Amino acid sequence: MTMWAILTLAVLAATGADGCTVIAVGKKATADGSVMLTHTNDAGLNPADLRMVRVPAMNHSDGAVRHVFNFQRNGYPRLVTMQRGPLYEPVDDQPLSEIIGQIPQVPYTHGYFDHDYGMINDVQLSIAESTCAAKTVGWPKSLHYGHNLFGIEELSKVALERCDSARCAIKLMGDLAETHGFFGEYGKNQRANYGSSSEALGISDKYGESWIFHILTGPNNSSAVWAAQRVPDEDMAVVANSFVIRTLNLDDSDHFMASANVESFARDMGWWDPATGPFDFSAAYSWAKPGPTKPLYGGRRIWRIYDVFAPSKHFDATLGQHPQVKTYPFSVTPDEKVTPKRLMDIMRDHYEGTPYDMTKDAASGPFGSPVRFGGSNKGVDGGWERSISMHRTTHSFVLQARGHLPDDVGGVAWYSLGAPHGSVYAPFSCAQHSVPSSYLVSRRHQFDTAGAWWAFQFVNNWSNLRYDLMHKHIQPVLDQIQDEAIALEAATVVEVANMTDTRARVDFIERRNNEFAQKMVDRWWSLAFTLVGKFNDGYVIDGDRSGDMHVPGYPAWWLQSTNYAAWPAKDAYNPPQEALQSNAMATSLTFTIVSAFSYFTIFAVGLMVGVLYLKHRTRSREYHRLV
């Protein structure tokens, strides 16, 4: 294996571990004045806990402590504790999760939706995550060589428990990380894993602010360095596994926040020389191996999103995202106002209609599949395009906050299961207390028709058998249900406008949302069974009568690219002489029969033409006699 192949594989492994995409949209860039965040959880490389868990709001006694856990590589269950509500309490003989530390608890904590990272709380604070590469690395205190208490998973959850604003969340997470230490993703030993050692968050709130937050481990593999930049109200920003914050104007507290050591640490490490120009956070702290893999892994997604929403800017798709050179801006103003539906659509993207269309290149196979599996490259140099929607996406969401509405109405988690290109975003109120039971039972290792996740996972996997045909069958169903979901949420806002009893309003919204979500899952299972019956063994089967079954076969371009067109290969067919003579005689006889049939056909046609002509002449003479 060449050194370039080794580097490529290492970077892909690092960046692919939790390679998620975040979009943050300002309030003046949206159609209704809301702020929005998106997240694709592309960490399907591990058997993650697939549950969408509701952590309830809680009151805590004086002197109570909050336990801190390490969530990395936990699988299922992600957490077992008596501190986070009934869904995280032990079942049967489940042992409690290891506590790696604790901090003082506050008197009251908000309820929130939880997954690998905290999502949205009952006062509309919203968080979305994307793993990044940095020049520092830290390890948790649970390891004998670790110094740090907080990973991004727990930081996001603490922020949702204690804050209602993005500014509060940023300050709280930064202070906790500086005081107790931050660790990103780490390897199985003390070897540094720079490719995923830091984190970025999108954070939005009901006060109409959207921020991008970056954090990495600080000096001596401990403490933390962090910075945050507000997304301009008219703009949208994208994070695709790379830092995007550059110059910091810390005198402008309306738009920038940072740790006190943000510049000094970079200077001390030799990563920034004040004599060369202003401090650049990304240039100072981002990490990347030489070559195109890392720049294009995130840069192509940034270009695609900006090109879809701001095509007038004419960004160059080939530049990549580089630490030292600014290629794409921190944020852009979209050409048209952004809606949840448009964000959902871009989450389903594989660069369709561009030179990088993953349904059109040779790797898509004869049936146009956009799926590119990972794994060992067997020593072959190269790489795949990294799309926004991926086969290993476990879930994704669009979080919407609207401060002009009550929290339970204004805060919506549009939540999707599995790969977005074959899934629907269902609305859940940020304040509802439960989700359908089907959202809580799916396990990665065991197929189960009772699980909502498996409905979408199964359809996505089955469609790979014949993506070009099946996706055309799936898309209209997806569009119809998605439109119904959007209409339901809009109608709910209108119908609860005069409901003053908060508890009754939450119950009403919860019941409507859960009923819709479960019916959506049921309809998706129905679609799954339809696809199994319609598309199997290479056939398309429309019914039980003659003519209801056909074989679409392979496209001509693909047949030409295989050994089909050159079959049989030279020296692969050497029949005996007798067989050749027999074939020649059969061919001659066939030619004779065909020729005779052809002559007979010509004669018959000529005879018919002659008869018709004579009849016409006879009628013509009779006509002239009458005249």
TrEMBL record:
InterPro entries: Peptidase_C69 (IPR005322). Keywords: Membrane, Signal, Transmembrane, Transmembrane helix. GO terms for biological process: proteolysis. It comes from the Eukaryota. The keyword Transcription regulation does not apply. One of its GO terms (molecular function) is cysteine-type exopeptidase activity. Residues 1-19 form the signal peptide. The chain crosses the membrane at residues 589-614. Belongs to the peptidase C69 family. Secernin subfamily. This is Dipeptidase. It comes from Aphanomyces astaci (Crayfish plague agent).
